[in-house]
Amino acid sequence: MSHWLRGVLAFLCVALCAACGTPERESIKTLLITGQNNHNWPVSHVVLKQILEDTGLFTVDLAISPKAGEDMSGFLLDFTPYDLVVLDYNGDAWPEETNRRFLAYVQAGGGVVVYHAADNAFARWPEYNRICALGGWEGRDEKAGPYVYWQDGRLVRDTTAGVGGSHGRQHTYVLNARTSEHPVMRGLPERWLHAQDELYDRMRGPGNIKDCLYTAFSDTATGGSGREEPLIFTVDYGKARIFHTMLGHAGETVEDSPAMQCAGFQVTLQRGAEWAATGEVTQEVPADFPTATEVSMRGIVVHNP
User: Fold this and answer.
1) Where does the ThuA-like domain start and stop, copy by copy (predicted)?
2) What sign does the CA torsion over 23, 24, 27, 28 have?
3) Which of 147, 86, 140, 143 has the alpha carbon at shortest distance from 118?
4) How far apart are CA 228 and CA 266, in angstroms?
5) What number is the average pLDDT over the span 33-55?
6) Which residues pair with 173 in a beta bridge?
7) Are 252 and 224 in contact (CB under 8 A)?
8) What single string gives the DSSP state of each residue in 32-97?
């Protein structure tokens, strides 16, 4: 669906609500944290913002950190105005006051989206690792927690020693649904083909996954683990609603980011973000959602980077 047509439909929905006396829903106030990453954050954050705002549900503010190695003491964030925090950050430690405020926000029931390499961040911050449930790289090993993967119809916690976090070469792969009951999953297919992307494997951590939504097989032929890896899930962390997606590697440019252009990535992100913020999903599954055999790509037009 073109951006023009989406805009027309959004306008008609607002007009219909006004005509029938139904109040227009307030936008979901979202804070997207970025500015440092071992991935291409200058591309990923503008694409994430656009994907969310394309729904008409979200208003996204940006918190862009100082560059790596610069003074972080002024990076003090206020989470209280927000319904949702999106993590696109993997870099230098935040100030302790920002850490404290973030934990207070999450522990009070805040909504969080953990996106791709954000689960690499802050390996030595125990509560952050519980918020992610699984992470990789940055020196993680068996001390970080078990490997967690899908086997024989359930999640397995494997305490074998070894590094945490790896992936083979980028390729297309099939996502396999592991529940149909969660609001994010209603109407989504049991299998769909994702565009070329990294497939994170050998991830480890506290492993406090609440709802395993989708897994994918990390084939040794592509340099993978040979296991069925959890890639989209929710996290069991008190009153908080946390949606974790390991999909969506950003390329050199917006146009050269097939993983982020994939309709499957965009729709699951949009639905997961709405659920994390509100506890429900009002979005319909679009007609261009991928099938088990065909990738579905969407162009990305960034209106307000």
Assistant:
1) 34-276
2) positive
3) 86
4) 22
5) 97
6) 194
7) no
8) EEES--SS-HHHHHHHHHHHHHTTTSEEEEEEEPPPTTS--TT-----TT-SEEEE---SSPPPHH
Nearest Cα to Cα of residue 120 among 44, 232, 63, 200:
200
233 in Cβ contact with 212 (< 8 Å): yes
Exposed/middle/buried for 15, CB within 10 Å: 0-12, 13-18, 19+?
Answer: exposed
Joined tokens for residue 297: 């790509």
User: What size, in residues, is the chain?
Assistant: 305
- Local structure of residue 24 (DSSP, 8 states): P
pLDDT tens figures, 187-244:
999 999 999 999 999 999 999 999 999 999 999 999 999 999 999 999 999 999 999 9
CA-CA distance, 169 to 185, in Å (whole number)?
A: 28
Are 89 and 122 in contact by the 8 Å Cβ rule? The answer is: no
Q: What value does the mean pLDDT take over residues 67-73?
A: 98
Reduce the DSSP state of residue 2 to 3 states and report it: coil
Is residue 183 within 8 Å of 235, Cβ to Cβ? Answer: no
Rounded distance between C-alpha atoms, residue 94 and residue 66, angstroms = 10
Backbone angles phi, psi at 43, to 5 degrees: -85, -50
- Mean pLDDT, the chain, as a whole number? 93
